[in-house]
Amino acid sequence: MKGFNINEIIGNIETRINDHMFVSERITSEINILALNATIGAARAGDAGRGFAVVASEVKNLAAQAANASKKLGVIRSSTGELHRQFVEKEIRRPSCNSSCAICMSAPRKFVGGRRMMRSFVV
After folding, report:
1. Residue 7 in contact with residue 84, Cβ under 8 Å?
2. What is the pLDDT of residue 1?
3. Fewer C-beta neighbours within 10 Å, C or N terminus of the chain?
4. Exposed e or buried b for every residue in 50-59, given b needs 16+ CB within 10 A?
5. Which of 27, 10, 4, 5 has the alpha carbon at shortest distance from 77?
């Protein structure tokens, strides 16, 4: 079983968020173009285009919602980046396994050595 690597996990999440942000921004751009075309069509049609103007207004609202979703993804991306930065800082400050293991592995030997020394005094 492959061990998990928090850096990889956070990196994958950041990549996926970036991909979704890109798609969301493209959709927002396309919706804005549709809204503009609908507004122009309504203006050209005059009174006959009033229904078209309502559609244009709804498309503009949809574009605003899509833009808001992109902004929210940006906030999530920033939070994820901050989480990653904090994790890296803590990893840098954490003692390495080799130094920790050396300390832990030497403890039983020191204990046994101390017990032998105590026996020599008692006997």
Report:
1. yes
2. 46
3. N
4. eebeebbeeb
5. 10
Q: ∠ CA 83-97-106 to the nearest 5 degrees?
A: 150
- State the architecture of 6-95 in CATH terms: Orthogonal Bundle (1.10)
Boundaries of every domain in the chain: 6-95
Burial 63-96 (b: 16+ CB within 10 A, else e): beebbebbeebeeebeebeeebeeeeeeeeeeee
**CB burial class (10 A; 0-12, 13-18, 19+) of residue 35?**
buried
Average pLDDT, the chain: 78
Kindly state the tokens that stand for 3. 């061990």
* Alpha carbon distance 38, 57 (integer Å): 8
Three-state secondary structure readout of the chain: CCCCCHHHHHHHHHHHHHHHHHHHHHHHHHHHHHHHHHHHHHHHHHHHHHHHHHHHHHHHHHHHHHHHHHHHHHHHHHHHHHHHHHHHHHHHHCCCHHHHHHHHHHHHHHHHHHHHHHHHHHC
